Amino acid sequence: MKSASEKIKSLFIPEEGGGADMQMVIDQLKLDSEREIKNNPVRSPQGPDEDEEEEEEESVLI
Fold first, then answer.
1. By CB atoms within 10 Å of each CB, which of 1, 4, 48, 60 scores lowest?
2. Is residue 55 in a domain?
3. Which of the 8 DSSP states describes residue 40?
4. Is 11:18 a contact under the CB 8 Å cutoff?
5. Residue 46 to residues 23, 42, 43, 56, 60, Cα–Cα distance (Å)
6. Does residue 29 lie in a domain region?
7. What is the Cα 7 distance to its own chain's centre?
8. Are 40 and 51 in contact (CB under 8 A)?
9. How far apart are the C-alpha atoms of 1 and 14, rounded to whole Å?
10. What is the extent of the structural domain holding 33?
11. Does 50 fall in a domain?
12. pLDDT at position 36, please?
């Protein structure tokens, strides 16, 4: 049985097949982050500018 430090080293220093596991983890993280981005779209950088323009238009109407 491996000690804790050996397990940690095996994550970062590929042994036989150890690198493939880490690559799978990285690939899964990429997929998860892409899925999260699609499910939670961030407002475009133009978003706040549009709000400011609306406020200016309202003040002109008053």
1. 1
2. no
3. S
4. yes
5. 36, 11, 8, 16, 21
6. yes
7. 26
8. no
9. 17
10. 1-43
11. no
12. 81
Residue 21's pLDDT is what?
74
| The overall pTM is greater than 0.70 | no
Residue 31 located in a structural domain: yes
Confidence at residue 25, expressed as pLDDT on a 0 to 100 scale: 84
Q: Structural domain tally of the chain?
A: 1
36: amino acid identity, one letter:
E
16 secondary structure, DSSP code:
T
The pair of structure tokens assigned to 61 is 């109407």
Measure the CA–CA gap between 29 and 38, rounded to whole angstroms.
Answer: 14
Q: For residues 10 and 2, is the Cβ–Cβ distance under 8 A?
A: yes
